[in-house]
Amino acid sequence: MFFFFTCGTHTFTSALKGYENVTVQCQNCGNISAHVYKRWEWFTFCFVPLIPFSLKPWKEVGCPICNFWQDIKYRPDVTGGHGDQIPMPGYGGGGAPPPPGAPDQAAYK
Ligand SMILES: [Zn+2]
Fold first, then answer.
1. For the region Disordered, what residue ranges are annotated (predicted)?
2. Distance 62 CA to ligand 1 centre (A)
3. What CA–CA distance (Å, rounded) separates 46 from 59?
4. Cα 92 to ligand 1 centre (Å)
5. pLDDT tens digits for range 76-89
6. Which residues does 102 contact at the CB level (< 8 Å), separation at least 6?
7. How many whole angstroms from 54 Cα to the centroid of ligand 1?
8. Confidence of residue 63 (pLDDT cuts 50, 70, 90)
9. Tens digits of per-residue pLDDT, 12-46?
10. How far apart are the CA of 27 and the centre of ligand 1, in A?
11. Is 105 helix (H, G, I), strand (E, B) or coil?
């Protein structure tokens, strides 16, 4: 008879309530593709989760492109419940200066 007991860990990952529609920029690869997840790691025995490593699941910003995880406490810009957290490059400021090298009217005198 041979018994094979497998111990390991299993991390439960699910979308964090209130952050389902929040997409933020990944600080590792720069893509606006990261989402906020709730992660909870458990100690498993024979693939059955028995003991949680922590009392509470932790909240992390995860990027599916580069597989980078970052605790949400390091992302004060990430807030949930507003739906739209995508930064809009090019917006804000208003009245952008003309690009350098643009033809100057004075040059055509
Ligand atoms: Zn990334």
1. 80-109
2. 8
3. 27
4. 25
5. 989 875 545 455 55
6. none
7. 26
8. very high
9. 999 999 999 999 999 999 999 999 999 999 999 99
10. 7
11. helix
